Amino acid sequence: MNSASRRNGGEPDNTTQPHLPEGIKLMVMRIISIVALALLMTGVCQAEEKQPTKPVRLLMVSQSAGFRHGSVTRKNNNLSPAERAIKEMGVTSGLYRADCTQDCAKDFTKAKLQQYDIVLFYTTGKLPIKSEDLDYFFNDWLKQKGHGFIGTHSAADTYKDYKPYWDMIGGSFDGHPWGANSTVTITVHDRNHPVSKPWGNEFTIKDEIYKFRNWQPEKVHVLMSLNMAKTKLKKPYHVPIAWVKEYGQGRVLHMSLGHREDVWTNSTYQSSLLGGVRWMLHLAEGDATPNPELSKAEEAKAAKDAGK
Ligand SMILES: [Zn+2]
Hints:
Layout: H1 3-7, H2 22-48, E1 56-61, H3 81-93, E2 96-101, H4 104-107, H5 110-113, E3 118-121, H6 131-139, E4 148-152, H7 163-169, E5 172-173, E6 183-188, E7 202-206, E8 212-213, E9 221-226, E10 240-247, E11 250-255, H8 261-264, H9 267-280, H10 292-305
Parallel strand pairs: 1-2, 1-3, 3-4, 4-11
Antiparallel strand pairs: 5-8, 6-7, 6-9, 9-10, 10-11
Zinc ion is lined by residues 69, 153-154, 208, 259.
């Protein structure tokens, strides 16, 4: 019995395929292959991202000895928006577990630092940290391999007159000509570094943008800068947005973005910070060779764009 006669009223046969028009069949096949490819690619990407054998420990410090940002303000005893983001990112990525403090006198001590691999600051002003604990942090803790410091947004508005601090970060806060409602364009210079890779070649974002003094282009590797030509308010100087540097055997990342609460829930911003953690833990490669020539070229471009 051929299949045609089966279909035309022969005995019931459960193996018979339902009639689908060729166009629909083709579409179903296409969808299946796209889904299969997507699953395969996800698998490949996950396989490429190395994980620590167990989550490391991160200490997030968001004490405001100067200006207090909404992003680090705790309400009704709940963690602030930035603290929640950092904690959740650690759990979902499997990279770290975060403890959050706004009490440096109690929690930023030589003894407590022994529990941590990474320290993140979203701070302002002169923090109440004992000088021997600060000395230990700069001269010993941060110089150890696998240790890292992440400064987000106002970290550069902290210890502005204390050289070991700005010398460690690479610059200090010198005002924010671009206020919190500014939409700016950012150029990504290093498209391979795990911190800057998630952003693509260029992007626009609404956030407050700092300018810096004590800026040390000869000691840092700039990853992203303000694109003066494409930003409304033009100033005749280089405005770095994110940079990295080696510090002894430890590693430092400064990320200028993060004033606004909505930046902390931006998935690209989160991927960028997680890229920084991977880089600090030597789970992802990233160049940290100082690139002062880039700062010089950006400075010249900005001066031209600002008509100076
Ligand atoms: Zn701010």
